Amino acid sequence: MAMKPEDVLRAIAAARGEAICIPTMTTAPAWREIAPDDVSVTCVGFMGGASAMGLGLALARPDRRVVVFDGDGSLLMQLGSLATIAGAQPRNLTHLVFKNGVYHTSGSQEIPGGLQVDFVAMAKGAGYRQAYAVRELDDFRKRLPAMLTDPGPLLVELHTGLADKTPMTARGGLPFDRQVETLRTKLVKPR
């Protein structure tokens, strides 16, 4: 049975420490509820942008772990980001791909290639330091501490089911420009 995205997000919220998180698409509504005051910015409205935004933050803040919550459909929209990230070799970037085989936000249409798409092979081929798949929540929980500390770029393909909510069914949250300003304020204040 596939992992529930919300269970994965709860585990991350409990372990993330000071990581900057980049939720996108179907992870966004649950993340707003699970970690409402964390240091994050949500990529909704520009499908495929989470990995590039994560790279920018990782390069700008090498002192902080950056964790991207990407979707399989979103990543397919910007596959070139894998090579760009691998070329930059940010040691503080963890790229989580929530793989469910569909564009859940827009109506659950199957993505090209469906569940056969191998993001692990793509990340390794692009030059990520590490890439592997996780299919069970217990395995995810065991590996999570290393995902937050091992040198990146690191990609983990998470075999998940569908989220309970999507940005289309659970509207709300701050507009993107306000999220960016809030993130900027949190990152520049002294610790």
Walk me through this protein's architecture:
The protein is of the alpha/beta class. It has helices spanning 5-15, 28-34, 50-60, 72-77, 80-88, 119-126, 137-147, 176-188, and strands at residues 20-23, 66-71, 93-99, 102-103, 109-110, 130-134, 154-159. The protein is built from eight helices and seven strands, in the order H-E-H-H-E-H-H-E-E-E-H-E-H-E-H. Strands 1-2-3-7-6 form a five-stranded parallel beta sheet, with helices on both faces. A hairpin with a 5-residue loop joins strand 4 (102-103) and strand 5 (109-110). Helix 3 (50-60) packs parallel to helix 5. It starts with a helix and ends with a helix.
Task: List the SSEs and their pairings.
Blueprint: H1 5-15, E1 20-23, H2 28-34, H3 50-60, E2 66-71, H4 72-77, H5 80-88, E3 93-99, E4 102-103, E5 109-110, H6 119-126, E6 130-134, H7 137-147, E7 154-159, H8 176-188
Parallel strand pairs: 1-2, 2-3, 3-7, 6-7
Antiparallel strand pairs: 4-5
Helix pairs in contact: 1-7, 3-5
The major β-sheet equals: 5 strands, parallel
Domain count, please report it: 1
**Average pLDDT reading:** 83
End-to-end separation: 41 Å
Which consecutive residue ranges, at least 5 long each, have pLDDT under 50? none
**CATH level 1 class label:** Alpha Beta
